[in-house]
Write a structure and sequence with these properties.
This protein is of the alpha+beta class and 293 residues long. α5 packs antiparallel against α6, α8 packs across α9 and α10 packs across α13.
Length: 293
């Protein structure tokens, strides 16, 4: 099985003093990095991409999104993505390593933003004309600062990034208006805690009781929180995270299906296949044929 490339931020900064932050227009990025970007790949950094012109399809972790003016995408390290874009595509993007942001914002983690921290939130935000213009101004100011050599350069860049992230979080809250009340905001914090725990233990622990116990709540209340925030059961959230990891492993690990199932906590391969098929609509073998063709 061929491996999926893991791209690091230095690849796009040839001939420069590399840093933990990178900014480019989409058009220039496709020119500079074309040999790395032609196939599905992963990043070791956080990515934010705004499209202002053109069309296409952007696939992130096997979820396809349409690309159009005002499409704003967020990607976390480790996600597999690919795209097919029209020849007239235009926009802006920036990449940053976790330390670049979190060393300056000690109490604010990138994972706290729902589009970076939650595998169950969409990675695309579709902006209306006013929102697009507001974000365009922020991206262009960020581009200007990136190329400048002024005092406190990083501070202003981080401020502009935070502005983009905070406004986007508010836009997501608008789209998910069931999160608007203070009670639901409390639920969302519990949801974030649950997803953090799932990220730590999903290969070993599949039981709702295990996670509810760590959160000091009942399994029934945990399910109520999940239904309110993402309209899924807690088991659905756990299983979808397991299957997503299975898909990633099937794509880039040279291991048998049985070995992958065992690494994900399934001693019985046939049961793993049933879980995978129920969640994704195909067997692991069918998935490999579809994506590795």
């Amino acid at each position: 099985m061929d491996s999926i490339s893991v791209l690091n931020i230095d690849l796009f900064q040839k001939g420069k003093n590399t840093s933990d932050f990178y900014f480019s227009t989409v058009r220039n990025h496709l020119i500079v990095g074309h040999r790395h970007l032609e196939k599905a790949h992963r990043h070791d950094f956080y990515a934010t991409i705004l499209f202002t012109k053109g069309s296409g399809v952007h696939e992130i972790d096997f979820q396809k999104y349409t690309v159009e003016p005002g499409s704003l995408f967020f990607m976390s390290p480790g996600q597999i993505h690919s795209w097919e874009l029209s020849s007239d595509i235009e926009g802006y993007l920036f990449f940053c390593l976790q330390d670049f942001y979190e060393l300056h914002y000690v109490n604010q983690k990138l994972r706290n933003f729902p589009f970076f921290g939650s595998v169950n939130f969409p990675r695309k935000l579709q902006l209306n004309e006013l929102e697009l213009n507001e974000n365009l101004t922020l991206f262009q100011e960020l581009e200007k600062e990136y190329h400048a050599q002024d005092i406190m350069k990083n501070g202003l860049m981080l401020s502009l990034m935070s502005n983009i992230f905070i406004k986007s979080t508010r836009h997501f809250s608008r789209d998910f208006d069931h999160l608007a009340s203070s009670a639901s905001l409390s639920y969302f914090k519990h949801y974030q805690e649950f997803e953090t725990l799932v990220e730590l233990y999903f290969t070993k622990e599949k039981s709702i009781t295990f996670y509810a116990s760590l959160m000091n709540i009942s399994s029934k209340h945990l399910n109520r929180i999940m239904q309110t925030v993402v309209q899924k059961t807690a088991t659905d959230v756990i299983t979808e995270r397991v299957v997503l990891e299975a898909k990633r492993m099937l794509m880039y690990l040279d291991e048998s299906l049985v070995e992958i199932a065992f690494r994900l906590g399934y001693e019985e391969y046939s049961y793993f296949v049933r879980v995978f098929r129920k969640t994704s609509g195909m067997t692991p073998t069918q998935f490999v044929k579809k994506y590795k063709a």
